[in-house]
Amino acid sequence: MQAEDPLQQARAIAQSIEKLADQLRPEVIRAARADADGRRDLDRIEYALGTIGKALILTDYSINEEKDIDKLKAFRESQKGMG
Description:
Layout: H1 5-23, H2 26-33, H3 36-58, H4 69-79
Helix pairs in contact: 2-3
């Protein structure tokens, strides 16, 4: 494996997520909410997005005590009750 592989992987993931976000239109969401399987799929999407968000925030997170700790606390607070 080359040192660039993770960078290329990040680029590919970003492009894929952007394409998928374009497909998640209101009519798709409404149709999914009207169906039991669709609701499960929306829950899976929400969980995956939450996992991505957590990874982006918490991976290699270096805390600047005066600036960033409030962001981390707010994130943790927002996650309470979502599990």
